[in-house]
Amino acid sequence: MSTESAGRSIRCLVAKVGLDGHDRGAHVIARAFRDAGFEVIYSGLHNAPEEIVQAAVQEDVDVLGISILSGAHNTLVPKIMAGLEEYGAADDTLVLVGGVIPDEDRSKLEDAGVSAIFGPGTSIEETVGFVRENAPER
Fold this sequence. Notes:
By secondary structure, this protein is of the alpha/beta class. The chain contains five helices and five strands; from the N terminus they run βαβαβαβαβα. The chain has helices at 24-35, 49-58, 73-86, 103-111, 124-134; strands spanning 11-16, 39-42, 63-67, 94-98, 116-118. The protein has a five-stranded parallel β-sheet with strand order 2-1-3-4-5, with helices on both faces. Helix 3 links the parallel strand 3 and strand 4. Helix 2 (49-58) packs parallel to helix 3. The longest helix has 14 residues, at 73-86. It is globular. The chain starts with 10 loop residues before the first strand and ends with a helix.
């Protein structure tokens, strides 16, 4: 039984980390999640990994979507994953990464605990469907 079938909306944090100032994609996915019936929180720009972890834990989100285009994904995303682990939230949070992630870096992020990576051209329907199928049960 997914979170949605249990009668509760899927709660998502769409987050921008680091100095990346491009947030059009984050806005698009936040709106798409909202239109799909998810409860959405958007972090805004220029957050430290620790701020993203704090927001995810305090908001008790089911899904953390990290939008990153700066090329710092191998540095910033593992820090977020380590923070979620430190707070005991890693197993209860579906972590997604969106952005331009080179193929050679994908396995590192997945090994760190990222559930899926969505690059340019991924359809909204695919992303929403993945969240519906994989959001953790509460």
